[in-house]
Design brief:
Layout (H helix, E strand, L loop, with lengths): L1 E2 L24 H26 L15 E5 L1 E3 L10 E7 L5 E6 L4 E5 L8 E2 L6 H7 L4 E5 L8 E4 L1 H6 L9 E5 L6 E9 L5 E2 L25 E2 H13 L2 H11 L1
Antiparallel strand pairs: 1-2, 2-11, 3-11, 4-10, 5-9, 5-11, 6-8, 6-10, 7-8, 12-13
InterPro entries: IPNS-like_FE2OG_OXY, IPNS-like_sf, Iron_ascorbate_oxido_reductase, Oxoglu/Fe-dep_dioxygenase_dom
Organism: Allomyces macrogynus (strain ATCC 38327) (Allomyces javanicus var. macrogynus)
Protein name: Fe2OG dioxygenase domain-containing protein
Length: 255
């Protein structure tokens, strides 16, 4: 289930959350709203810390986050069917599209790809992922590392726009889910905290080749042209799930 801010003046692509009624699930909407508000405050705090790490004032993202594109997703990964005993890929390798993702999980399964020099276990020679995800992550091979579940903590993944701002000095986190819990369901609550759809994203001068925060070994500008985040988001959604008009045509043809 996907939950989004309850804006009165909705923009294209912004839809209302179809909450169950209180009669159906008592207190559900109130609980989700309270969690959403807390995650929004946490997201702003994390983005301020990230701005400083990127050599910017702490307020660098404030304007872009005046009306953030935020989404709370409630996910259930079903237990394995009877007779299945091996781990299985529940979500393929990908990066997230915007700013950061704050993730709460109840059991292991999340894996992130890291360079071999920092890896400890679970090596893989091949990575199957969306081409744009591979571009932002800038890792075409490496090692899948299991993200430990530490009670009382959250996982924070960087997403594509941070890779763009930093010319891939900060990588967008390429991740996947391998559900090894064959006897029970796995639950995950990611909170996607992204900038306003109209935000223009370009490589910061500090991360240009030769810049004070740039990797001295990198001589290329990976993202030479600025982009509008909302346009990037729609292209990614259409590339992953298909354009809305094509889906509509397929539905009509099937009926």
């Amino acid at each position: 289930m996907d939950l989004v801010p309850d804006f009165e003046d909705r923009r294209p692509g912004e839809v209302a959350t179809p909450y169950p009624t209180d009669a159906q699930v008592p207190g559900f909407r109130m609980a989700c709203g309270a969690y959403f508000d807390v995650m929004t405050k946490l997201g702003r705090a994390v983005m301020r810390i990230l701005a400083v790490a990127m050599g910017q004032p702490a307020t660098f993202f404030d304007r872009a986050l005046a009306r953030p594109r935020a989404q709370l997703r409630l996910l259930r990964y079903p237990a394995a069917p009877p007779g299945m005993t091996e781990a299985r890929l529940s979500c393929g390798a990908h990066t997230d599209y915007g700013g950061i993702t704050i993730l709460a999980v109840d059991s292991p399964g999340l894996q992130v790809l890291v360079p071999n020099r920092t890896a400890t276990s679970n090596s893989t020679p091949d990575v199957v992922a969306h081409p744009t995800s591979r571009a932002h992550a800038s890792i075409h091979g490496g090692t899948w590392m299991r993200v430990p579940v530490v009670p009382g903590t959250l996982v924070v993944n960087l997403a594509d726009m941070i890779a763009r701002y930093t010319n891939r000095n900060f990588h967008s986190t390429l991740h996947r889910v391998v559900h090894a819990g064959v006897n029970r369901d796995r639950f995950s609550i990611p909170f996607f905290f992204d900038m306003d759809a109209e935000t223009v994203v370009r490589v910061l001068p500090q991360f240009m080749p030769g810049g004070e925060l740039a990797n001295p070994e990198v001589k290329e500008v990976y993202f030479p042209d600025p982009i509008v985040f909302g346009e990037h988001l729609m292209r990614q959604v259409e590339s992953t799930f298909g354009a809305a008009d094509k889906r509509d045509e397929a539905t009509v043809a099937a009926s």
